[in-house]
Structures are given as structure tokens and as C-alpha cells.
Amino acid sequence: MIIHFYSGEHCHLCDLAQQLLDDLDTASSLQVSKIDVKSDHQLFHLYGARIPVLKRIDNDQELGWPFDMNDLREFVR
Asked: CA–CA separation, 5 vs 19, rounded Å?
């Protein structure tokens, strides 16, 4: 499964989300692309105030912060 992880530099909440991803038991089956929303004006407009946001590429479903491990497991199921 491919997931885009919309984040930003010096984002404490993004660091927390990254830790959840790292701790996820199915992390090895995920392809996570971390994307800095400041790299693109449109991405910054869409996600700048909402980061961290995870987006599944297969179904366009998004998981925005705040989320916990249970939410993350359900999201990737």
C-alpha cells in the first residue's frame, strides 16, 4: 500500500505521526512517501494548516491529525 505522508519541517506533530508509523506492526508492507507541503504551493494550500495528514493512494482516503495507533491500524486495514 502506498501512503503519502504530508508533513512539514520542524513539525512536532509530524514527528509524533512518524513515530506511530514507525511503531506500526504492518509498517514493512507500507510504502510511505514523506512530502513537505512547503515544496508545492497547492499542497501548502491544501494541507499546510492540517499537517500531519496521511493519504492512501489506492482510495484517496485521508487520515488527519489527531490520530492514535488504533486509528492508524484501521486506516491501513
From this structure: 12
State the Cα angle at 57 between 54 and 58, rounded to 5°.
125
How far is 23 from 49, CA to CA, in rounded Å? 25
Residues linked to residue 34 through DSSP beta bridges, in sequence order: 5
Cell digits of residue 41: 504551493
Distances (CA, A) of 49 to 12, 34, 74: 13, 17, 24
pTM of the model: 0.93
Q: Is the pLDDT of residue 41 over 80?
A: yes
Q: Is 69 left (phi over 0), alpha (psi -120 to 50) or beta?
A: alpha
Mean pLDDT rounded to a whole number for the chain: 95
